[in-house]
Amino acid sequence: MGADCIFCRIVRGEIPSHRVGETARTLSVLDAFPAAVGHLLILSKDHHERLHEVPEETLAELGREAGRLSRALVEKLGAGAYNLIQNNGRDAGQQIGHVHFHLVPRSPGDGLLPFTSGARRDDAYYNELQKKLTL
User: Fold this and answer.
1) Is the dihedral of CA 34, 36, 37, 39 positive or negative?
2) In whole angstroms, what is the distance from residue 83 CA to residue 122 CA?
3) Which entry of 39, 98, 100, 102 is annotated as an active-site residue?
4) Considering the chain, what percentage of its residues have pLDDT values greater than 90?
5) Catalytic residue at 102?
6) What is the DSSP string of 90-115?
């Protein structure tokens, strides 16, 4: 774990948090600076800066927790919609270099900006990317 990483310190219990879930590899807490009522953070317990560095077992637990907690937002808070957000690197909006997911309840007119799509591209663009990214 990162000695100075705020999320590692939360995982270790050195910084108080409002915990809402925990597995062997994840910790879920209420966001200290919520964008909406019920805004949650799902943290990897181990320190990994970006998603592609996270072991498969941890990724699976992060996904299960996202599903479990999204159901809680719908069933317990009546969230009609929500965003699951995960940023990698400063250029993508990552403010803390520790893998985490934001689970943000949404409501009509809440003023939170949704993800917007760019312009449609030609087939050559998609064909080239498909070749590069197909595993």
Assistant:
1) negative
2) 29
3) 100
4) 79
5) no
6) GGGT--SSS-EEEEEEE-TT--PPPP
Looking at the chain, list the stretches that DSSP marks H as alpha helix, in order from N- to C-terminal side: 6-11, 56-77, 123-133
Whether 101 contacts 86, CB under 8 Å: yes
- How many other C-beta atoms lie within 10 A of the C-beta of residue 22? 14
Which residues are registered as beta bridge partners of 8? none
Domains contained in the chain, CATH given? 6-133 (3.30.428.10)
| Residue pLDDT, tens place only, 75-113 | 999 999 999 999 999 999 999 999 999 999 999 988 887
Q: Which residues contact 87 (CB under 8 A, 6 or more apart)?
A: 93, 94, 95
Going from the C-alpha of 98 to that of each of 11, 49, 50, 94, 125, the distances in angstroms are 11, 4, 7, 9, 32
Q: Is this prediction's pTM over 0.85? A: yes
One-letter amino acid identity for 129? L
pLDDT at 60 over 70: yes
**What residues does 21 pair with on adjacent strands?**
28
Q: Is 109 left (phi over 0), alpha (psi -120 to 50) or beta?
A: left
